[in-house]
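Dear support,

I submitted the protein below through the web form. The confirmation email said the job was done, but the results page showed an empty box. After a refresh the structure appeared. I'm attaching both so you can tell me whether what I see now is the final result or a partial one.
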Amino acid sequence: MSDPTPHARFTYRRLTADDIPAAQRLSAAIGWPHRREDWRFSARTGIGFIAETAGALVGTVVCWKFGADQATLGMLIVAPEHRGVGIGRTLFAHALDELGKRDITLYATEAGQPLCDALGFERCGALDQMQGAAFRPPLVALPANERLRPLGTSDAQQLVALESRASGLDRSHVLPPLLDLADGIALDRDGELLGFSLFRRFGRGFVIGPVVASAFPDAVRAKALISHWLALNEGALVRIDVPHGHGLREWLTGLGLARSETVVKMRRLASAPADGESSRADPGLHQYAVIAQSLT
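What the results page shows now:
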């Protein structure tokens, strides 16, 4: 997209660093907890578009490219007083135009699902947003010879590889800047990296994610990686976004985290998948918690 294009009395252009304060105020106005720092991370790693009227920012969307044929989309916000006039659809169109012929994945709220349905997205999963501040996680016993250890500077390349395999998306340009913002713990077995989890400030508290680990019965490895952060942060507001299918919602509820929202995972394929190919994710690795809903 080159020059700003008009839509009625609205104009659309790329998000810049100067727009971050206004974008954060817009997200806060609809109850989203994102800080300016959270918006800066989105702008640094993704490509955003905004809608303006009379010099005021009234809509946003951000998209992320993962390699030549994969992408995610999120942060679609329209000011309540300007809804119903096509701003969301136009912002969505700018993002889709930017992404070109890529497979696109997103998480949609109940309000956003009709637009996604109309644009050819299909439902393929769901995610629970869990959060709380009063929790006392039990000690999780790991399999023999496995241990948790702090992340080292030499782990970065392996972390990118693990997260890319678990998510099915090339994380080489997203994970390194995330590591600059987060603390991390690794799951190790005799020098082999089996998984990891990150913990960082987000919104009004902290977020755990991603959580990546080799598959194991009862998600024991993931539970150990999550319990580590909960035990260190009793009394702090902690959020974790967990995809359905791993049985963690009930376990987290038992620890004192409550489900605050459930969103639907949706995907639009640029072309039909090859026979037998439903996902690029490694079935031996699981992403038990996502980086962020926008980044799936």
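Response: this is the final, complete result; the empty box was a page-load delay. The domain at 130-263+276-295 is CATH 3.40.630.90 (Aminopeptidase).
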